[in-house]
Amino acid sequence: MTGPDVQDPSPRYRVAVDIGGTFTDAVLRRGDGLVRSDKRLTTHGDLLEGFFAAVDGVLAKAGIAPADVDDTIVHATTIVTNAVVTRSGPPTALLVTEGFRDVLHIRDEHRYDMFDPQIEYADPLVPRARTFGISERVHADGNVDRPVEAAEVDILARQLNDANVESVAICLLNAYVNGTNERRLRDLLAERLPDLHVSLSSEVAPQIREYPRAATTVLNAYTQPIVAPYLERLSEVLAERGFSTAPLIMMSNGGVLGAATAGRFPVRMVESGPAAGALAASHLAERMGLDRMLSFDMGGTTAKACLIEERRPTVTGRFEVDRVYRFKAGSGFPILIPAIDMIEIGAGGGSIATVDNLGLLKVGPDSAGSEPGPACYARGGRAPTVTDADLVLGLLDAGHFLGGDMALDLRAAERAVDGLAERLGVARIEAARGVFRVVGESMAAAARAHATDRGLDYRGLPVLAFGGAGPAHACFVAELLDGDTVIYPPLASVLSAFGALITPLRYDLARGMAGPVDWDRAEAAMAAMEEEARAAMTAAGCPQDGMRFGHGADMRYAGQQNEVTVPFDGNPVAARDGAMLREAFETAYEAAYGLRLSDLAIEAVAWRVSAHGPGIAGETEPMTAAAPGGAKGKRPVHVRADGESVPVYDRAALSAGQALAGPAIIEERETTIFVMAGWRAEVRGDGCIVARREG
Question: What CATH architecture is 276-347+453-501?
């Protein structure tokens, strides 16, 4: 987004950087709403190289120096996810109560597919050979029956040292109720192995259920030696370059925190970038007065869908990473941290198209990423990807990609698609059209499943299209979802970075507690969580008078296995209001299951506290021209018919109120909008383009 510079005697510059699997995006916003953005290829060998290339790009466009950035620097990154997917973490060990060494292999004994005799699971991040049992015991009520013995830790320390272990996860039985033995074990290890990274389940995920708690703690331990030094180096290089503020890190729950807290709990960063996109969608829903919306973020590596309800994304207390089968819950690692509820779709611009053993076309989940990238990037990639198909279909202009700064190789794309066409036994255009259709069907199917699983009606929802590839595919996906409205926001290609830019501080905590409601223990847990949250928020720069707290609980009817997360209007623990507690629970339970069981007792298995910082201004200068702009040319597009002549517009030349009938292509530096035939697009005064299906 660009606009005329406005002299501001006291500018406040904020910068956000989102590192994705293919591109690194940077957005700079000045206090008066002026915005600049830049997009660079992600440098996987050294993520900070791409980070600062993008930052330097936006600073140059704004004509300012690092010292002029007098507000915050926010960072969203895929570094945690990448470490898990590529198994690039250091040797990590798991310390458990004696007799529980197989917790990561036994899992929860649930089969995610009852009818698959060859069911597969992702390999644990810690092998059994590096899982050690400790002779200790804490009872279910928190009573320490057997403390950790120093002599046993002497032997353990030698074993860890011999195995070259760099990080350990400690997950002892019932530590969510009382973490005394975990803390003692950590302290004894620190005396013997001072350089060892240690993650405690009683700090990372103090909740019931041994396997999810262990899996969450292990992921934290596995990534901590990578993330903590990375964030330390980021802070150091920012200071060396003249930036005066410390970075804030985007978290999975839709908030930001200081780098020190993020480095201690990297598991909270797993969905960092996508969460920022969902926050941007929430901001736009509020601005446009839309209570419900489907956020559709299609980037270079994957696509993410998020349902916005009551102008807010849903936050869940449990999700999965590294699934063996992308759409099958239970095939990945459960993570017990608050995260925005999204569905990941293995279909981005770099997703590779293949032909399976049955001769059927498949797209994803494998991606060419940025290295080597799609064939048309001319960086060594040869496999046909979605971007290659879009280029062959005429949706993309080979000479206009990234405003012409990164020319695409049409011939390379054609060669890649030709190989796919030969395996399918069809012509080049038909193969490329098949990729376009299959990727759209995959994304629509995932969105349907995501909504249906949550009892929500997806039909007719407005679709917010963003990410580098999203605007080119959104009309087709909306049609498959029975939708009639697609919104293309300003900054569409870098909207996740913009979302990080306007995200306030937030810190979510949970404390497990089994059995009937115990007001004394609940009050102590709430107070401890508020104290921890206040310390983390203060460290991130939040003033005491700028904090507000929300409260909730994971509740169920006594005897049930599963629970629902219940938000409270106030703090029922402070008032010890049992009637309020029950009414809030049964309202949430009825919404989920359609009934109440009022004759049964209730219990809270976890209490929750959410700390929030002040809101961040997110308005930007409208990006519209003074007068309607005409088409700058036409080109053949083959999405629905061979050689259909489609007018091409420059987004910056369109004025508020201007309407365009589909088919039409609207280009901007970092993305391309494709308005399909049967749709009509109109430019709003705030710069959003809204396409509606006619008839």
Answer: 2-Layer Sandwich (3.30)
